[in-house]
Amino acid sequence: MLKTGKELLLDAQKNRYAVGAFNVNNMEIVQAIINAAEELNSPVVLQASQGGLGYAGVEYIASLGKLAGRNANVPVALHLDHGTDFKQIVQCIRHGFTSVMIDASKYPLEENIAYTKKVVEIAHAAGVTVEAELGKISGTEDDISVDERDATFTDPDEARYFVDETDVDYLAIAVGTAHGVYKGEPKLDYDRIKAIRQKVDAPLVLHGSSGVPAESLKKAIPLGICKINIDTDIRATFAQAVKEYLEDNPDQIDPRKILGPATEAMKRTIMDKMKIFGSNNRA
Ligand code: G3H
Ligand code: ZN
Fold first, then answer.
1. Which atom of ligand 1 is nearest to the CA of 179?
2. Burial class of residue 43 in the structure, from the number of CB atoms within 10 Å of its CB (0-12 exposed, 13-18 middle, 19+ buried)
């Protein structure tokens, strides 16, 4: 079942769990995510970044995502992750994405609001729901990089103003996580999540969640985090599985034999995340 992001996240908010949003770049990752979701009876977000769309092509990703979503016996949203290009956002909506992110977080507040409003207007007209970002999350997610020195945490009052002004459906906040591999242990600002939630009704989104300890995520979810983005941990699992397989089978040339174990390994990583998020048996 293909659903909007909002439908998934409102149920998560009501029942105090989080939906995993996992980055997809090819068929094997889509299959790993959908198989994990079906095995655990969990709702799930398939998300593609601009880098992912550049690699596979928007038509391929949209076709894979729609097929997987329609055939799945769990609710699936197909989401554009960190969209910065208005034309590409429109293209995704046209190709059947059910959710899009406009990431104008690098701009000053009023400009971020103006860009977000424009996307909300066209997306809502097409029945698509929208994520925006306020505050700056450090690290690198595909082609978006924010230096540690430029990272800024989300201000709760600004968050309320931003959501009221834009009518955005869910909000990505900067509360101590970072994209990519962590150097030390990430420290989440739980008081800030709580303060934002007190001012904002929209479900909150946590980016850069790979490498964040399970206990930290479990603490953040009841405070208002309803969508948790994971990319790096899936990449690491994929790379490790392929390396191991080829070390053991150096003469293997069949892509199916090489990628099959990686798909299985990614599925297990994703299932572990879903259990941490509490989304199992919520479909
Ligand atoms: O938007 C995608 C996520 O924020 C992924 O972050 O690669 O650190 O898991 P991650
Ligand atoms: Zn992100």
1. 8
2. buried
